Amino acid sequence: MTRVLVLNCGSSSVRYKLFDGDEVRAKGHIEKIGEAGGEAADHDAALQGLMDRLDLSDLAAVGHRVVHGGERFTSATVITDDVVSAVEELIPLAPLHNPGALTGIRVARKLLPDVPQVAVFDTAFHSTIPPEGVLWAVDRDLSRRWGLRRYGFHGTSHSYVSRETARVLGRPPAGTNVITLHLGNGASAAAVRGGRCEATSMGMTPLSGLVMGTRSGDIDPSLIFHLHREAGLALDLIEDSLTRHGGLAGLAGANDMREVLERRASGDTDAALAFDVYIRRLKEYVGSYLAVLGRVDAITFTAGVGENAPAVRAAALAGLEPLGIAVDPVRNRENALVISPDGARVAVCVIPTEEELEIAHESRRALSLAP
Ligand code: AMP
Questions:
Q1: Quick one: average pLDDT of 319-341?
Q2: pLDDT number for residue 39
């Protein structure tokens, strides 16, 4: 029993990878579920089709990516009826994300009743952040009543790449401090001391922190009151603007970093400014996490932008030579695993993230199976 099926179910999509050990036996995605011209009428049909196609003999587990685990889930958890109810109760904290995962869990349990199912939470890796790193300075009764606190996301990615960084550098994970920069369509930073997360940039929801493809990242919350009162915008519209029309899309009119870089190169001043805002925010978080950790052994870039955009990596760390941080231009251009010069005090790494593999590992760990 070595196979694990990893499912990442969104509201209208299913992504899957079937692992045998660490080997990927099958992968793919089903899009536009329930939409006209889509591949399946609903999640039931999508998953049933998937299971008919895949060889699911010897399946040890199904691992589900669940975005929000709230305060209760601090590690991957074997799914029971009680766990399903708890994930359902967390929907108000993740209205865009948890419902899809729940549907996936329900359908997969129905179709594969004899296979253990595990929920792997995006928030779990951040459960080690100390209270002073998760609380905001707001009325404590309100915070307690409504669960107002930082949870953090992209946890499987930060966990995987921080561990991989230590491995690539030939260092013990427990003695390695890493700043991880997950720069994809969504983006977040984390400060990891010896494998334990101490700070991260996303908050109660994945809206805060770094500048993203379409999400604003950090703003002064007064912006919302001002737009509501003075511009007369409804709250739903403001939320939509900050989550779907902010970030690079808001500043440059393009959410894809490749397009921003191309437009910037051809003299588009909005694109140039968007790039500068993106980099400035990144740099502010790097500086903040240098201060949180005190000693930093490595800074690691990952995800679509982090793995593929040398210009972003070079700009984000430019001028930090006095802190022992430098990027070698040739290694950077080649997207090498280590892009800092030999002998640098702080290693700078580019580690491709493997969130599904991490979910497969976590699923086996939750079931006490061999990794
Ligand atoms: P992810 O969410 O990790 O799949 O990252 C997706 C994002 O990565 C895309 O929206 C692009 O902005 C970015 N990306 C992918 N390839 C490149 C590249 N070669 N240069 C710059 N950005 C890239």
A1: 98
A2: 85
Residue minimizing CA distance to atom 19 of ligand 1: 308
Write down the catalytic residue from 44, 122, 240, 328: 122
Cβ of residue 13 lying under 6 Å from some atom of ligand 1: no
Could you read off the pLDDT of 168-192 as tens digits, one per residue? Answer: 999 999 999 999 999 999 999 999 9
Domain 172-350 is of which CATH architecture?
Answer: 2-Layer Sandwich (3.30)
Q: Which residue has the tokens 């950790």?
A: 293
Distance 131 CA to ligand 1 centre (A): 33
122 is catalytic: yes
Is residue 184 in contact with ligand 1, taking CB distance under 6 Å? yes
* Distance, CA of 98 to CA of 229 (rounded, Å): 31
211 C-beta closer than 6 A to ligand 1: no
* Residue of 37 and 337 predicted with greater confidence: 337
Q: What is the CATH number of domain 3-121?
A: 3.30.420.40
Domain boundaries, given as residue ranges, for the chain: 3-121, 172-350
Distance, CA of 276 to CA of 327 (rounded, Å): 18
pLDDT tens, residue by residue, 290-306: 999 999 999 999 999 99
Task: State how far the alpha carbon of 110 is from the alpha carbons of 104, 113, 144, 366, in Å.
Answer: 10, 6, 36, 21
